[in-house]
Amino acid sequence: MIRTCLLALFLAGPAAAQTDPATIDKLADQYDDFAPAVEEKPLDELVPDTGPGAEDAQATSAETNDAAPDTHATETTAAPTPPGSGQAASDPGPADIPDGWARHAAHGLTFALPPDWDANDRDEMFTATSPGFSPKDGKGLGLSVTTVPAEDFEKDFLNDDAAQRAVERSPKAPLALGGGVTFPRAVLLPEDSGQPVTMEIIHATRPQAGAGYLVISIATPDAAELERNAPLLEQILGTFRLADPAAYKAATRADDPAAANDPVTTLGGLVTIRPPEGWALTPGETEATLRTDVVYSAYVTMRRGDAARAALDLDGLLQAPPRESAGEVLGQPASVFSGVFSYPGMQSGATMQRGKVRVYLLRSCLPDGSPVVIETAAAPGWLEDNDLAPVLGAVTAHWPEGMQPCHPAVSARAQWAMDGLFAYVLPEGFKTGRSRSSFWIRTADAPYASLGIGTGDDSFPVDFRLADKNPAGNGFIAPPETHQGEIMGEPALVFTGRGRAGEASRARHVALLERCLPGGVPVVVEMTADDDWLSANGGMDKLLAQKWLDLPENAKPCDPSLVQEAMRAAGVPATGAAPQTGASQDTPTAAAGASGSRAAPPTPQPSTPQPSAWQPVGDPVTGGLNSKLAVQNGPAKATAFRLESRGYLDRITTYHWNHGRGAAPGTIALRDEDGRLYGPWPARGAAGQGGVPNAYWHVTPNIVLPAGKYTVVDSDTSTWATNAEVGDRGIFSVALRRVVRPEKAGTAGDEPDAAPPANSPEKLFWQTIADSDDPADFRAYLRAYPDGLFAPLARNRLDRLDGGDTGRRPSAAPSAYYTPARGTAERAALMDAARIPVQRAVGQPVIFVVSTLRSDGNWAYLAATPVQPDGQPLDWRSTPMARDWAADMMSDVVMVVMRRDADGWRAVEHIIGPTDVAWLGWVDEYGWPRALFTAR
User: Fold this and answer.
1) What tens digit of pLDDT does each residue of 728-751 get?
2) Interatomic CA distance for residues 163 and 380, integer angstroms
3) Alpha-carbon distance 55 to 640, whole Å?
């Protein structure tokens, strides 16, 4: 516990920025590339193609929302509140908060700090530091507020002899927090804690149920700082109050110590427990534990649901595979797994021993299919004089009606992935991996075989795409065959063929399940194997042995458009190729009528295009979908874009981050300048960053739109994301295709062979910029008309304005790339440019441990691990990515693409913590050559 508080203050706090220049130079030689003088320049970001007049567009009442932004601001108090009078000594009354101090709340406490203190409020810990805080120079104070797990606090503090001696010699009176609750105070010197700092620990005497001990700590590298700042510290601590004393006392049962042995119903109402004498109970909804006063002597833990599934993975926990037998626990038949822990972690007297463990898996599961697991463990020395049977006798079970046989994966003690969607027993010789929306199992060595499970995100069509249309170079070599089949018990449409693997090919099967996850999210299963592996194992079915899918009860038939989208991507003929899955959709008008709202105008029926006459525009029309800034809910302005020439509408996407909760998909529509409504179309959801469900809403209208201005109409503006970067409009993206003209597309001469009509928007656009010497004008034309008749002229003009073929695209020749040498001005400039977006993202200074740096003189690519300026690993828990890091949903790598222009190097794209080959997406999205990322 003590170390946890120290690390939070000295590694996560702003002191990391206090590295002197000489140390920085030394570290740059030892690690890599740090130039402290970085002048930040804004990155280029995609903005919506709103066209003229967009600033004046006003959102209708149905398209706006006044919800507060998803941001946190400290509250500055008004005049001080006088302290109460006539209170008992243990009840200080209202807090006396000095004028101008900032008020905070964390872990059930309210308090205030001087306005010049630097505060950092995270879910697991609140930290703050005084001005000039510098552990290196022995200056300043650090304060933290956190809740420490009961076992950790008791082991490292309450049961630690040195810490308790510090408590006994502490001269300070307890801190009164209101409601009669007081916390003792103790000053720990370096010889007490084993750390080179002095700390004051102010702590609860009882843990909160299901949480732990509430702890306030003040740390300083110089003990004299505590004395010099004693008046200020007492003033700060005098502002601390319990936000709800009654709730706190109920959670700790502090108002009635004798009640600790009263019966407690816990584990979601599944059991009632009266703790035996000398045993303590930590209740919870999914996990409840009884343990001895000596924390690691013996315990009984009961788990349900996902917590129970995770507890069944015993192989890494035990010294040897467990012995399995049949038994009974709490009146239920159970499978019993017995063994010895792989490490000496149980306490018997003054020694630590390898504890004996017994895990009971109930043969029947709860009505919702959740398993129940009861784990008992004890030190062998404890078992010589004690028995766990009376402890289990203190537990009364309330088994519900409707108990049912468990899922086969439970009985097989399978591991679970993807939030319970997929279960598996890992075969020998295989390894696992995952990204944000997929999970795979594949052979560790040749011959190769792989099984992957993916859920619907923006890469969904890539699973089916032909290899020659996939920048990653994988996919089907030729249009596959399709048939109805079954994958792990789920009906599916299966695509079978050959896939590319370097110069060779492999058998490749891709299955699209007939049922989708809530929100219409598709599930795809991909199997790939070498012919040698198939021959040795008798076919693909071997990959599916002891693998299970467990779709939720509310999974529904998929939208038929998913099948059509997959078949189009795979090049499968649309006529008579395979039956569609799912139920037919209601018409938009019928859907609107069912909701009781006013019937929508009939959707315009544009003519059906010939597929061969249309091609992708290139980059989609986008309004902040790849923004790097924080978002809030409720756009305040109408969200619009302008289409300069008619286009085939492939997809509309809106973004619903909604404070990390996502939103159930509704509908998306377009309204033209005359008020005519296109749609609404039912949206399907896709996971966003960090696995947020239904953060993306997608619709695939597949209609032709005439030229004009269109307003995006989202059915749930209250959760539609927005930020200042998009001008308080909704974040969206529109993917279009435009017609391919049969006439010749133009040459590099002064005029195209076939000019558009004189009054066409494209012609007017070109006439406006024809004499310009600003490269941005021609880039804007190419964004609007990437295949326009003047596109060759625009590209030639860009070449001349840029001084030849510099910077328009990275070189496609591997021989053009080199690694700038350390100590050169070019490498320093590249590190400066890369550091701007990385430091902005992680919120603290970094230096880079470079794994790849590649440049052709005008473009550059960096892959590196950021570390602190003192060379220590970056504490990702102190960054905005803390939750993804804790959930093992990111790596410690950053990737940055940079471009040199007239002002020097600047970052044009980056990603923090990728879990897969992120640059493959950039190759697809921007057309950058693979040589930029793979040249040797």
Assistant:
1) 889 988 887 664 433 333 333 333
2) 28
3) 10
Structure tokens at 62: 């149905």
- Residue 796 to residues 312, 342, 846, Cα–Cα distance (Å): 64, 69, 40
Residue 239 token pair: 């502002």
Laid out side by side, the sheet with 75-76 consists of 75-76, 102-106, 109-113, 241-242
Q: Say whether pTM exceeds 0.70.
A: no
Phi, psi of 67 (to 5 degrees): -60, 145
| Phi, psi at 163, each rounded to 5° | -65, -40
Q: Which two tokens stand for residue 677?
A: 């409504």
Q: What are 14-69's pLDDT values in tens digits?
A: 333 333 444 444 444 433 343 333 333 332 322 333 343 443 333 332 333 333 32
Question: CA-CA distance, 450 to 527, in Å (whole number)?
Answer: 6
Q: Is residue 862 within a helix (H) or strand (E), and if so which, with residue range?
A: strand 859-867
Number of H helices, E strands in the chain: 22, 55
| 3-class DSSP state of 772 | coil
Q: Which residues pair with 216 in a beta bridge?
A: 145, 202
Burial class (CB in 10 A: 0-12, 13-18, 19+), 400: exposed
Q: What are the pLDDT digits (tens) for 117-162?
A: 988 887 678 889 888 887 767 778 899 999 988 877 887 787 776 7
C-beta separation of 110 from 124 below 8 A: no
Contact assessment for residue 892 and residue 824, using Cβ atoms and an 8 Å cutoff = no
Q: Please report, for residues 154, 155, 186, 194, 442, the alpha-carbon distance to residue 162 in angstroms, rounded to integers and kept in the order given.
A: 13, 12, 11, 10, 50
Hey, how many other C-beta atoms are within 10 angstroms of the C-beta on 440? 18
pLDDT for residue 236 is more than 90: yes
| Region for residue 61 given its phi and psi (left: phi exceeds 0; alpha: psi -120 to 50; beta: otherwise) | alpha
Q: Which single residue is written with the structure tokens 């828990």?
A: 877
AA letter at 563 = V
| DSSP state for residue 85 in the 8-state scheme | S
How many other β-carbons are positioned within 10 Å of the β-carbon of residue 753? 11
Burial 108-122, CB ≥16 within 10 A → b, else e: bbbbbbeeebbebeb
**CA nearest neighbour of 2 among 255, 171, 190:** 190
3-class state of residue 241 by DSSP: strand
Answer positive or negative: Cα dihedral of 809, 626, 897, 690. negative
State both tokens at 646: 């008619």
The whole-angstrom separation of Cα 293 and Cα 386 is 14
Distances (CA, A) of 50 to 637, 668, 669, 717, 726: 12, 18, 17, 19, 10
Sign of CA dihedral 358, 360, 361, 366: negative
Rounded Cα–Cα distance for residues 671 and 650 (Å): 17
pLDDT score, position 84: 30
C-alpha–C-alpha distance, residues 279 and 430, integer Å: 43
* 177 and 155 Cβ atoms separated by less than 8 Å: no
Measure the CA dihedral 884/888/894/897, to 10°: -70
Can you read off the two tokens belonging to residue 11? 């590694």
Count CB neighbours of 873 within 10 A: 12
Overall size of the chain counted in residues: 936
Contact 804, 875 (CB under 8 A): no
